[in-house]
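Feature request, filed as a ticket because there's no other form

It would be nice if the structure record came with a short human-readable summary line next to the tokens. Right now we just get the raw output. Example of a typical job, pasted below so the devs can see what we mean:
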Amino acid sequence: MTDIYRETMRRNVLESERLNEQLDLLNQNIGYLVHPKIVSKLPPDPVIADIGTGTGRFLLQLADFYPTAELHGFDISPALFPSPEELPDNVYLDTMDIKQPPQSSVRDKYDLIHVRLLAAGIAPAEWEPAVRNIIKLLKPGGAIQWTECNWAGVQHLRGGTHSSIHSARFMGIQFKEGLKDKFSHGWNVLPKIFCDAGLIDVDEDVVSSDRVVETRKALTENGMQAIFAWARLVSSRSVEGSLPMDELRKLEIEAYKDIENGCYVRFNVHVIIGFDQSC
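Raw output as currently delivered:
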């Protein structure tokens, strides 16, 4: 299995904590865990898959709402999985590469497939085959909910008249430029891919990352943590154009000062849903 995500981010305890916080903050701005149009069509005891499950946090939260559901999480790497002892009895985690055709044991199995934030792990040409592979997991009439952010459109803005933004904005631009081949795809192609692949009732819900003002600072700090983790990784590998470690240390101090002074991040969050048309 080709793990593109590993090329840009490290999987460790700090990344687990950051991903958990990121999911919570984005969900506050989205306003729901599962799209209302999907909730209304789910059976009482659904079978649900979470693709790119990471720490399994989505499923752990979902278990509170669907205690009798079967909840299966899949990721290309098990590195961030909680231990089995930490999981409810109805939550199961395993590895899967969605860029490969799924095994027969998981085909036509799920009422809902949830996918979130795979842009850093999918090459531009892999989006359509990944969607078609995921559709093979759906039961007749099942639904897909896929959330991606427009990272290419990230802006660092000032919150007050005298807010400083220079270092935070500089690093945000470095991050976007370094991953522009990945960040320029996903959020903008999924609706068409869903339709071309035969899904029906395709809908796209778009919200701003700062819709809930109270989340602004935490989400900005969360994103800055990811930016500097990536910057240190590419610096350690001497990637062309990467910044030296001593400069990164100085920029990190200044970027967090910017956030303390009111700098905040804004980007669009896209939630795309679609339903299998066979019944």
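Something like this underneath would help us a lot:
The mean pLDDT is 92.
Residues 216-236 form the longest helix (21 residues).
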